[in-house]
Amino acid sequence: LQVPRAPSQPAAGSESRRFANKHSKKALKASLTLGILLGMFFVAWLPFFVTNVTQAVCGCVPAGFFDVLTWLGYCNSTMNPIIYPLFMRDFKRAMGKYLPCCRRSGEPRPSAISLSMRNSNSGPRAATSLKNVL
To answer: Which pTM value belongs to this model?
Structure first.
């Protein structure tokens, strides 16, 4: 038995495929970024926690080794500001907008008044639509 298919509109079909393809690329990139961040976190902190449990059970971990593993975990915190701008365009834009060292030469500097109004939840706001957010 064959089930008859309803005729589809080619413009709507290609539009929905393009929309799905765009969002699948965004989802893949977000998954990749999350995987890298979590991977770096586990590589940096898992040895520390395993050694910490071992130290609690047998007390056989040298203090110098424990310190090295602690600093490896601290290095993870220094890697995050490097990883975020590499993989997140919105983070990169925000950094370029507010940090003088990252701003392009043609971009104007935001005023202190506009920053305080934006951060205080007061003042006029542009209407936010789903299209602007995505």
So the answer is: 0.50
Q: pLDDT tens per residue, the chain (134 residues)?
A: 565 665 555 555 666 677 677 778 888 888 888 888 889 899 999 999 999 999 999 989 999 999 999 999 898 888 877 877 777 778 778 877 877 776 666 656 555 555 555 555 555 555 555 455 45
Residue 107 lies in a domain: no
Is 35 within the bounds of a domain? Answer: yes
**Does the CA dihedral 41-45-46-47 come out positive or negative?**
positive
Domain that holds residue 76: 17-98
Residue 5 carries which DSSP code? P
Position 109 in a domain: no
**Number of domain units in the chain:** 1
Q: How many CB atoms lie within 10 A of CB 44?
A: 19
